[in-house]
Amino acid sequence: MKVGPLKRLRDLAQSEAMCLAVSCVASGSAFAATTFPGTGPLPSLFSTVAVGCSLIAFTLMASRPRMRTAVEAGALTTERVSEDYSRDDLTGCLTRRRFLEVLNGRLAEIRRRQINGLPYDDFTLMLLDVDHFKLLNDGFGHHAGDAVLETLGRRAQQEADWVVGRLGGDEFAVIVPGNDHRAIAHDARRFLERLGEELHANSETRAFHGISIGVASAPADADQGSDLLKKADMALYVGKRSGRGQVTFYHGDMQRKQAADRQISRDLHAAIILNQLDLHYQPIVDVDRRGVAVEALLRWTDQTGRSIPPDTFIQVAERSELIDRLGEWVFRKACEDLDLLDVDLISVNISGAQLRHDGLLPMLVRVLRETNRSASSFILELTETVLINADQKVFRLLGDLRALGFRIALDDFGTGNSSFTLLRDLPIDIVKIDKSFIQRLENDRIAQVFVSAVGEIAKSLDIVMVAEGVETQTQQECARIAGAQRFQGWLHGKAAPLKSGRLPERSLRSR
């Protein structure tokens, strides 16, 4: 009978004169188990140990190739995961998590060297944010937005010594060596210029509006990552508020201003609830000085009796979710006041933030229904600076509003990058010439030519021209000669609440 190897091993272990040595090799280490001559149960125990060690040794030796393969595969997987974790798929920039690791690492090194009295290398953090990115996505599709982000990321990574990360969405962060504000501003503007040239040359991305950049310095402004990001973001916020497309450096006053804005926002929220707001109405008249409409102007008097300037609190509202609530309050109040005014037409201002939000049209329709009003009783005023960047979505919205019966007015024309194509292309009914032109009509040839040109175009397109800021009879006559058909200003009455002041007595005739 053929004897198996395990039985032979057991028989050897039971021999009284035998000394058994078993070597087990596992992961490069040797283990030895030895028996000495003896009698009784000990040989049986030794035999069991020997068999067990042998089985373990055989198993480990047989599995070593498989273990090596698994370890190597795991290493490759870890490498791929690390790469995925470090780089953004779309742009190739560092991911948010990896960028923050780099940022915090550099700041930690600065702090360490400061503690030890050693020299250190300061640096600058820039936050880049694409202006009107949502409009770009909504108007031209996500492929256009992705193309802008990919180009931005690629071009930024080509800049010497820039460490670039994508923090999320359309926001990027860049670490730049040094702290020379002038040099950094120059390099940033040069980058924006070259980026804009490339994007505008591409039909897919030519609707790109621009990029705003907020800048903070380390360690001068902050030596902790979260604080440095907050201050760069604060500078970015201030830059966007003052016109976008700018490179803005953080300074201490920004923090105080932000705190003041937060207080205004809280107070305004309370004012809406406590009914501290009011509408004042300013008359709009025709060439015969007959009142044809009123413009509703929002006013706020706080609990102390202090009047808060509209330019202050409306800008704060536009930068928060309050603008939608504020806009609805104004429109609802105008609807309620219509019966108390001796006019059939009220002009209501719509902010750019409202125009960009999807809820504007449903809100207007709902309030009209709840107050039993008609859209034909209202003019919606939008400023030139809002409409000059209008995309197809805004064009469609304006068309829908006009289809409901609203009239659309282009307000403050002449204050921004005035383009006569706005008059031609936008679905508008009224153009309001800014008071800065009307008040110079008597002596300024350029103002006369500009207003006359607008008047000619408006007449040919059947658009009513309104002269704003009329304070003297001479100004009104000059505006009338230039083509104005409606007039608004102190000559015909200041804005006043319903309980006082002279308001228009006649209703608007159809155009």
UniProtKB/TrEMBL annotation:
One of its GO terms (molecular function) is cyclic-guanylate-specific phosphodiesterase activity. Residues 1-32 form the signal peptide. The keyword Signal applies. Residues 121-252 form the GGDEF domain. It comes from the Bacteria. InterPro entries: Cyclic-di-GMP_PDE-like, EAL_dom, EAL_sf, GGDEF_dom, Nucleotide_cyclase, Rev_trsase/Diguanyl_cyclase. SUPFAM superfamilies: EAL domain-like, Nucleotide cyclase. CDD domains: EAL, GGDEF. Pfam families: EAL (PF00563), GGDEF (PF00990). Residues 261-509 form the EAL domain. Keywords: Signal. This is Bifunctional diguanylate cyclase/phosphodiesterase. It comes from Rhizobium rosettiformans W3.
